[in-house]
Batch of 2 targets.
Target 1
Amino acid sequence: MSDIATGSQPPPTRWGALRFAVLLFLLTASAAAFGVQLWQRAYVPALGADDAAMDRIRAADPRTLLADDLSSFRYDDQAYTVEAPNLDWRLSFAFDEGDGHIERFFQTATPSSLGTNNDGLGPIYNAASCESCHQFNGRTKPLPGQGLLMRLSVPGEAENGGPKPHPVYGGQFGDVSHEAMTGVKAEGAVEIVYDPVPGTYGDGTPYELRKPIYSVVGLNYGPMGDDVMVSPRAPLSLYGLGLLEAISDETLLSWADPDDLDGDGISGKVNRVHDAATGETAIGRFGWKAEQPSLIAQSADAALNDMGITTSLFPHETCMDAQAGCRAALNGAEDDGPEFDDESLIEMAAYMQFLAVPARGHIDHPEVRRGEALFSEIGCAACHKPHAVTGQDHEYRRLRGKTVRAYTDLLLHDMGEALSDGRPSFDAEGREWRTPPLWGLGLLETVNGHVDLMHDGRARGFEEAILWHGGEAEGSRERFRAMTSVDREALVKFLKSL
């Protein structure tokens, strides 16, 4: 026994030494694990875990790499489905999980399905899965009931400063429902007829555009009224979106020239929108009018408006007061929580953030090179900017400091009265549209079987898309229209090489 008076202690036992050794081992192992995790967080997601996986990227001509080292070399009908090479295993896991969410077909809530991870569809909606509108991560052909959406609003602003929803039909027309299961009727149907718009190129070659005329029929909740504003929207592709998200706000603001101070006729501006994730105002960059600031917000908005799936960002169904059956329908989550949880929402965003962009081809073909020069000469590159570098503040290091060749400035531009939807959205006016990226469009027909372009799919190819340009782009359109057929073909070949 120890002698407290003299302060002597018994010699340590072997069990005490063993406990000390175990404790030392655990502390060392914990420190090592923390160091490895810190290393991976700081470096591996940026540099990759497998050096050999980057060999083809390093060997490629940098001009072909539209998405830097997040480019791919697949050119068949799966070209838009490729995971960016050399992802850290955690990002790769999130990517795979997100892929499942994109492909998942949701189902209408029933008592037996309550709380399952594919529950809560509708009760009024446009599609049962993300892939319905984004087939193979591209653009499903925009047809009523198949991919074409119809945004609605009335004069005034919503509480968040955005479009004011229609008092009966809400902010988006719902043309599908499972009436037999829920007793809730779809809102109606969209019909399109086309008026021909003839024209002539400068060399006398005739062309014909088609002007869409939209109507809503079979309305199940009463007339819409004369003050309704409608805006048709075709799907957009999902690949490369993480890099667009990583372009800094400062870069977008440096490109903006809302008062055309440089006198070049181009007056792009940012759309300042409500960010549902933060509750603050932010710069929008996703959607046809740049109405969402991040992929998390964009995913949650699409889940709600396209499929009727609630999230923590948008926790309430879009059922309006006049739609009693919709409001009474069963929620697809337990305890009245969101039908799609935050972890799944993050995984869905990660999938879009790390979808690779197909690399360019035929970069040295004489006609392609000629078309690329013409693209700049007639002014297209003023808005479809061919080069940007992502910022250093994105949450994923893998997306920082990358050279992006997306051919967009993500800004709003006046596109003329012929393309106006007459519907303001935050700072975007009816004539204003975000510059859509051009990268990967050369494979659209291969992947999705069509080349229907513009915000509503009215253009049947690159030529018609250019000819619909007006407003700030009118000069570029007229220079294209005045070209010889040889030069027009060269410009289109360049676009098809992207």
Target 2
Amino acid sequence: MSKAANIYSDNSHDSSSSVKRSAVTRKRRSTAKAKGRTAPWWLSFLIVTSIFGMLLISINFRAFTAARDEADLNTQLAGRIQNLMDENLALQEEIHSLKTDPKVIERESRRIGLGFQHEKVPVPAN
């Protein structure tokens, strides 16, 4: 029988062969779909590697930013410490000169309103 005759035939034997054929075509289609859906192994590797790379970059960028901020803060604090040490040294020199130098003592006493006299006042003797 021809294929056209098989289509219109009511033979049960022929229908079983058409069932077999339809099962075979379904199987072929499912294997074709399964083959189409599978991705190559390198694509999965590429996706995992790129996710790992992005994670690594974001962690390192955050750490680099924190380290840079710490370095900037360290530089600022070192500058402030140096300024305070210079100011402390100047104050220590001023304290030493106020304790030992008579000219500085006289100048400061006049500045605050105390008259500093080195002269002796003659007292009349009777």
